[in-house]
Protein 1
Amino acid sequence: MAYWESLCQNFTLITQNVDGLHRAAGSRRIIELHGNIHINRCFNCGVETSLEFITFTDDVPCCSCGGMLRPGVVWFGEALPQDAVDAARRAAQACDLFVTVGTSAVVYPAAALPGIAQQAGAVVIEVNIEETPFTSQAKAHVRGKAGDILPGLVALYEKTHPHSNASIGNP
C-alpha cells in the first residue's frame, strides 16, 4: 500500500485496522476508521496522546488532566469517529479507483464506501479470499490473498494510471 501511495498523486488508504502497521510500512495518507492502538484517549477530557507522553498514577496511565487513559480504538458498541467517517466518504466520492481489500463488506458505515465510490463514477475492484455482499457490484472481483494479488494490481495500475486519484482500503 505504501508503494501504491508513492505512485498516486492523491492517494488515501482507509483502514479498519488498529495496529498501525500501514504507517509502519510507510503509508502516510491514512484514515483509521477504528482508531489506533498506539494512541491513548482520556476518559475525562478526550485528549489523545501517544505512549511516550503519558504519566502513571498507581500504575494507571493518566492524562495531564488527571483522567485515566484508554486505548485510542473504537470498542464494540461505540460509534466510529465522525471526522474519520466523513474523511473516508469524501475520499470515496473523489477517487477514480477504489480497491477494497480483505473485508467482509457487512459492517457499516465502512461497508458503504465502495458503493459511494462507485456511485461517484469510480471503478471498484474487490480483492478478497471469498465473495462478499458487494462482489456482484464490483467492476472486478479478484479472488485470492492480498499479498498474492496486490503486487500485480500495482504493476497494472502503474502502467495504466500514472497520475490518478485512488482510494484503497479494507473498509
Protein 2
Amino acid sequence: MIARVPVVAVLLLGSMAFTAGCASKKHVARETAPIINKVNELDDLTSKTTREIRDTDQRAQQGIQGVQAKASEVDQKATTAGQQAEQAQQLASKAVTGVDQLTQQVANLDNYRPVAETSVHFGFDKADLSKKAKEVLDQLASQIPNTKGYIVAVEGGTDSTGDKDYNYQLSQRRADTVIQYMAQNHNIPAHKIYLIGLGEDKPAAKNTSAQGRAENRRVDVRLMTNVVGQPAQTSAQQ
C-alpha cells in the first residue's frame, strides 16, 4: 500500500524551495552589482578617453595644418624675395649697360657733324605727331639715302610747366614717338638712332611767355654723318 504524503507537506516544501530560490537570486544580485557598476564605470571611462583622444587628434591635425600653412607662407615669401632680388640685379645690370651705351653714344657723337636738322612741336602735355610734323620728318628722311655713315640724333624737350621728373618722361615719350615714326615709315635701323630726353633742361626759348613755352614743347631731329666732305642739306622747321 502506497503511503500518501499530505498535501500540506507538499505545499510547505514547495514554499521553502521558492523562498530559498528567491533568497539565492537576491544574494547573487547583491554580489554582482558592484561588478556591474565597475563595468559601467569602465565603459564611461573608455568613452571619455575615446573622446579625449579624438579631440587631441583633431587639435593635432589643426596644429599640423597650421604649421604647414606657415611653412608654405614662408616658402612663398622666400620665393618672392628671391624674385625681387633677381629683378633688382637685372635692373642694376640694365642701368650699367645703359651708362656704357650712353658713354659710347657721346663719344660717337663727337665724330659726327650735322647734315640736316628739323624740329617738330607738340601740344601741351601731348606726345602725338601732327600731320605737319609727319611731313617735316618725311622731308628729313628723304635725305637719308644720300647720306653715308649717318646717324639720327633725336632730342626731346618740354616747357617748364609742371613737375621736372614728369617733364623728363614726357620729353622721352615725344622723342619715342618720332623714333617710332621714322623707323616704321622710313626703315631706319634702331642702331642708327640716338635718343636723348632733355626734359626742360635745354629750352629753345624762354618759358616766360606762351609762345616761348610752345617753342620748348618740341623734338629736335638731326641727320648727322661721320664722312668728311658730305654736303650739308637745308634745315626744316615745324
